[in-house]
């Protein structure tokens, strides 16, 4: 089980390190997030689970949800692998309800939680790369969340 979790964490870390985190998202909607024209566009809508749209949650709700999940993560006992796995699952579910750069917040948190889960029973800590991924995602989305009146917390 620990090897599987470690493999999942390593794969998630590899996926996150391939993402570019160069600057915070713009405060206003980007051209790709603008309202679609009434006439059918040529680009298909992104698929999401349960027929939900990728933008099911607004930016404000996503930022508040991240803060809530991170607070839950911080409250998990250091040796409670199951508690970290619960945060991982919640972050994965939350990731599927948002679009754009905000997905990175939940992807990074899920990576951190599963990484911490794999080391919890031995009293270890998550890898520095996992912690850095969360920090980078927070910085990358701080502009968007601040514009919505939410300050991301670590």
Strand content: under 5%
How much is the average pLDDT?
A: 76
The N- and C-terminal alpha carbons lie at a distance of 29 Å
Evaluate the radius of gyration: 16 Å
Please give a structural write-up.
With 154 residues, this protein is an all-alpha fold. 56% of the residues lie in helices and 0% in strands. Helix 1 packs antiparallel against helix 4, helix 2 packs antiparallel against helix 3 and helix 3 packs antiparallel against helix 4. The longest helix has 20 residues. The two termini are 29 Å apart.
Write the layout of secondary structure elements.
Layout: H1 2-17, H2 59-75, H3 81-95, H4 102-120, H5 128-147
Helix pairs in contact: 1-4, 2-3, 2-4, 3-4, 4-5
Features:
154 residues, mainly alpha, 0% strand, disordered N terminus
Give a quick precis of the structure.
The chain is mostly helical and 154 residues long. The protein is built from 5 helices and no strands.
């Amino acid at each position: 089980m620990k090897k599987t979790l470690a493999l999942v964490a390593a794969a998630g870390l590899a996926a996150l390190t391939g993402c570019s985190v160069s600057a915070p998202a713009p405060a206003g909607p980007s051209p790709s997030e603008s309202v679609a024209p009434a006439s059918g566009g040529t680009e298909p809508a992104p698929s999401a689970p349960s027929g939900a749209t990728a933008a099911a949650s607004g930016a404000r709700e996503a930022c508040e949800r991240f803060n809530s999940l991170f607070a839950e993560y911080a409250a998990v006992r250091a040796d409670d692998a199951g508690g970290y796995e619960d945060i991982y699952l919640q972050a994965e579910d939350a990731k599927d309800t948002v679009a754009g750069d905000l997905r990175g917040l939940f992807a990074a948190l899920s990576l951190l939680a599963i990484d911490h889960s794999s080391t919890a029973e031995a009293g270890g800590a998550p890898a520095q790369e996992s912690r850095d991924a969360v920090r980078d995602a927070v910085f990358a989305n701080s502009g968007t969340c601040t514009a919505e009146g939410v300050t991301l917390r670590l």
